[in-house]
Amino acid sequence: MEFSVENRNGEDQKKTDLPDADRAALIQAALEARNGAYVPYSHYAVGAALLTDAGEMITGCNIENASYGATNCAERTAFFKAVSRGIRGFQAIAIAGGMEGEAPADYAFPCGICRQVMREFCRDDFQILVVKSTEDYQEYRLDELLPFGFGGESIR
Ligand code: ZN
Fold first, then answer.
1. Angle at 11 (CA atoms; ends 6, 13), nearest 5 degrees
2. 75 is catalytic
3. Tens digit of pLDDT for each residue in 13-54?
4. Cα 111–114–117 angle (5° rounding)?
5. Coil, strand, or helix at residue 54?
6. Ligand 1 centroid to 150 CA: how many Å?
7. Which of 75, 102, 120, 135 is catalytic?
8. Interval between CA 94 and ligand 1 midpoint (Å)
9. Over the stretch 53-88, which tens digit does the pLDDT of each residue have?
10. What Rg do the C-alpha atoms of the chain give, in angstroms?
11. For residue 143, what are the CA distances in angstroms to 35, 63, 121?
């Protein structure tokens, strides 16, 4: 494995090629995207900001449903918005989650379904930032969070 644990200890977070300005803007956009969350049941508001290869940021929030099962995560909201516009190349996503009206108390990691959606459209080195604030975040590669991933090449 080429990954170290250094990116998790807060001292070597900026290990990627993502420019500092992009990273800060992406984190801020994810935090602000929480304001759109529709979460009448869990009151757990998640925002995501997706950075395309062209440098555009596309945000998403979680959208709950009375059936629970029809709930959509913030990450997939952002991906589906982008894909529906024909965008297929992505660099990074920032994700921020916490109780509605409160700053994130912990890192919100993407669920398994969202990791699989990322696997469909992203390279192994796609960056996933789980954030509490612009100063407090952790950064991972997709193939760290979804090792041995299953993709379209597996069924051709
Ligand atoms: Zn999810």
1. 70
2. yes
3. 445 678 888 999 999 999 999 999 999 999 999 999 999 999
4. 155
5. coil
6. 17
7. 75
8. 13
9. 999 999 999 999 999 999 999 999 999 999 999 999
10. 15
11. 30, 27, 13
